[in-house]
Amino acid sequence: MDSGQLMGIIVGVIVVLVIVAVAVVVSRRRKEAADRNRAAEMREQAKADEFAAREREAKAARAEADAQQAELEAERLRQEARGRQEEAEKVRSGAQEQLRKADELDPDVVTAGQDTPATDTPTRRQMRSDETAGAPVSGEQVPGEQVAGEPRSGENAPGPGAAGGTGTTHPDDRPRNL
Question: How far apart are CA 168 and CA 158, in angstroms?
């Protein structure tokens, strides 16, 4: 081999080595650029995820606050309901007490403390319980109710000038405490 050929081989090897080195450098730069781009994208995604996480945390905090507000409102309504129930019970007991006192004052009402007369006159308490039980069965007469066709005791038959065919009633003939 001659020196010209040897020089050609050496130059050829050097050129190949330079080409390989340039290819390696370019490849690395491309890889670094791609890595930088991927890293930038990952950072952007992480920022978006962080923002979404903070937004979800804020929504969760709002939901928790709303739940606590609803619990407070429910407790306030429970207390209001208890107060109204207590008021209703006071009013009811006052009404019962007033009825009891009225029964004690009324000479026509037989109460448990008085001697019971031998007649079958119902007590006010019995009349109240009958009223709550429902309407009278047909054919039954409610105390103080006039049966059709029968004049009340102490009433006169309707006169010729009476309107509607009813007689005049004396104020003392009205039923009491009904």
Answer: 7
pLDDT of 88-100, one tens digit each?
Answer: 999 999 999 999 9
3-state secondary structure of 93: helix
Q: How far apart are CA 15 and CA 73, in angstroms?
A: 86
Over residues 143-155, the pLDDT tens digits come to 554 445 544 444 4
In sequence order, the 6+-apart residues with CB closer than 8 A to the CB of 59 are none
Confidence of residue 165 (pLDDT cuts 50, 70, 90): very low
The contacts of residue 122 (CB under 8 Å, 6+ apart) are 130, 143
Measured between alpha carbons, how far is residue 13 from residues 7, 23, 25, 70 in Å?
10, 15, 18, 83
Residue indicated by tokens 């010729």: 160
Select the more confidently predicted residue: 110 or 16. 16
Structure tokens at 140: 């039954």
Cα–Cα distance, 14 to 18 (Å, whole number):
6
| Cα–Cα dist 44/55, whole Å | 16
